[in-house]
Amino acid sequence: xxxxxxxxxxxxxxxxxxxxxxxxxxxIGSEMMDNRAYVSHVDKDAKVVWNTAKxxxxxxxxELIEFDDQTRIAxxxxxxxxxxxxxxxxxxxxxxxxVTAKKFMSTVxxxxxxxxxxxxxxxxxxxxx
Length: 129
Prior knowledge:
Layout: H1 2-22, E1 27-32, E2 37-42, H2 46-60, E3 66-68, E4 73-78, E5 81-91, E6 94-103, E7 108-109, H3 111-127
């Protein structure tokens, strides 16, 4: 009985993400994890999302971006904020995209800017369909 209740409680957040993702196209769901990080489940292969994220950061940043293809972590300076984008393979043709942002010499979390970057990345991913 207790295991059934636990499974039902764990499945509840997933069902709301899937309902929101049905209308979103490529993006299955997006949520704020803490006051600086946005996490999104994307209905595309991790390699495609990773290449799109790198291209996006390189185009938006006036400086060179730092990235590691093995761990799929990219760092860039956008509008005087340090932005970090990570891409993880979730399943076949599905991935998890995380955007974090900090301002004032990386001392203050900036969740609002992370949200803006995530929305712009979503638009870029939807345009590449």
